[in-house]
Amino acid sequence: MANEVGDLIVKWSGQEYCIVGLLESDTISDLKAAIYKQTNVLPERQKLLGLKVKGKLPDKEIQLSSLHLKPKTKLMMMGTREEELAKVAEPPEDIPEVVNDFDIEEDEIAIENREEFLAKIEKRIKDYEIKILNEPREGKKLLVLDIDYTLFDHRSVAETPNELMRPYLHEFLTTAYQYYDIVIWSATGMKWIETKMNGLGVSKHSDYKIAFYLDSDAMISVHTPKYGLIDVKPLGVVWGKFKQWSAANTIMFDDIRRNFIMNPQTGLRIKAFRKAHFNREKDTELLKLSKYLEDIATEDDFTKLNHKEWDRYRPKIKSSSSTQDS
């Protein structure tokens, strides 16, 4: 008869949960199922920190006996309940946009300058390896793009990726490439990014080139008073590796504002692209935003722009001076 592991303590969202009754013959999957019963965070949404087997994160089928867990071992979990994800993915239309804006909270304004979070960025700069696909070009500004709901409807069902591609994607990237080097940053794994970019015909397009991809490993976790522990995309990781880019010449598109909480002035929340089969004919977001990118390309400092009002931006008209000799 298998022995019990003993009580395990899981810390999540500021609370501790005691997991009891697990056997040494149980697996990581069984542990996650037990955690789900107490937290309502689905097993596939759970990321457990502190579990290691020979230096590698454990497989879900590894038995708990091989982890040599002591009673009262404390594990930290990252994850979000489905209902919370739904609130982010499907915000009610009658709620003002500022509800999802981190920069309305004074205590959240300071998040981008917190020493512990800046230390995490420095660690990513040091440890995260970027595979250059196409060398950055001198003098080009930087455009960082999300994938899900920004370029692609990843929830709808289709036979080919092209059916779920956002309208005007290639036209948008072609225009942007004239002024910007383009980086794709998704909160998923690198294999998924490469698969989708290949399927959409982005990775080897003749009219533009992608500089490099960033995946979830380049992200950091931050704690906010309002949302608890969340993963975000700090552009400081890119700026630390490529000195030619900074907040002054970088812009990031993402459908979730909290992803750029560490660089709020640099982010533009794009309207989410969902239900591709119904919205393909009427979605013109990328077409409009390509014009915005073209218009601001001559700006010396993007930090002086308010990207929330991008659709009201008007390019500066240079005044003509008389060239006649007096």
Automatic annotation (TrEMBL):
It comes from the Eukaryota. SUPFAM superfamilies: HAD-like (SSF56784), Ubiquitin-like (SSF54236). It is found in: Nucleus. It catalyses: O-phospho-L-threonyl-[protein] + H2O = L-threonyl-[protein] + phosphate; O-phospho-L-seryl-[protein] + H2O = L-seryl-[protein] + phosphate. The keyword Hydrolase applies. GO terms for molecular function: metal ion binding; protein serine/threonine phosphatase activity. Residues 136-296 form the FCP1 homology domain. Coiled coil: none annotated. This is Ubiquitin-like domain-containing CTD phosphatase 1. Its cofactor is Mg(2+).
